[in-house]
Amino acid sequence: MIKPLLIILILISASVSASVSVVDAVPLSDMTGLKSTFPVKTDERSFTIEATGNLQVSNLDFDKNDKSVTLDITTSIENNILEVVIPSSLISGDFRFYLDDTELFPKFIQGKNSTFVTIEFSAPVGNYEIKLQGTTYLDIFDISEKIDYKISNGLVDKIESNPSTNSLIFSLTDTEDAGQLSVKLSDDVIMPFENNEFMIFVDGINSDYLIKDDTLNIKFNSNDNMITIIGTYVIPEFYEVAPLVLATSFIGLIVLRKYKKLFI
Questions:
Q1: pLDDT, greater one: 164 or 61
Q2: Rounded to whole angstroms, what are the CA distances from 17 to 13, 50, 244, 248?
Q3: How many CA atoms lie less than 13 Å away from 217 in the CB half-sphere?
Q4: Domain of 128, in residue numbers
Q5: pLDDT band, residue 222 (cuts 50/70/90)
Q6: Helix (H, G, I), strand (E, B), or coil: what is residue 75?
Q7: DSSP per residue, 45-61
Q8: How many CB atoms lie within 10 A of CB 22?
Q9: Domain stop point among 93, 118, 137
Q10: Is residue 95 within 8 Å of 133, Cβ to Cβ?
Q11: pTM of this prediction?
């Protein structure tokens, strides 16, 4: 009786988890062509980007602030195809693609470790730039819309999370005068260390802070550009996976109860 129950639970769990698990992707095309390999070193980490196509890729430029890869290409025919493989841990997220200033909508697959992009386009023979722009860099995520905050004498340009360092990063602008950043604390966003304290850095300098009414208050000086809060962080993607994991648990519980009734 136990063995059939386990089989049922495994099948249901697999059917639900199949929608959330990510497997390594495979190239979208089996084409042959000129292959170029470009090493990328950024923030003490090394990556490799590959490009294969019926055209020449003469240079690759990586911009970590723009979270983009730009390829300088030269075509010899009008109908062209290019496949690019980018490590997911370098840049990922919601991609946009451009041929010079024209936006493209190519086929692409985001795997566990790499993003495979196949770009097909028709254009006169000549030199072009292909730009691939993501929204995350080194597993850093833009969570500006998830944070409740107030700021005086300045503006917050963006808020990013870095799960690998358990930190929130506030990029500031227009800080011509000294001011204060107030962040509403929530366990869904960031949690303190065991001593209920955070580590705060203002432009890389360890700084004091005050917590009042579940609000973290941090003072900054004129022309300061970045505030970093370090604690225990919850990865943003957890919000997408958690409901499905919870659903799997509920389904397993329901099946268990129904199965048990059959043998009472």
A1: 61
A2: 6, 31, 7, 8
A3: 8
A4: 20-137
A5: very high
A6: coil
A7: EEEEEEEEESSEEEEEE
A8: 10
A9: 137
A10: yes
A11: 0.55
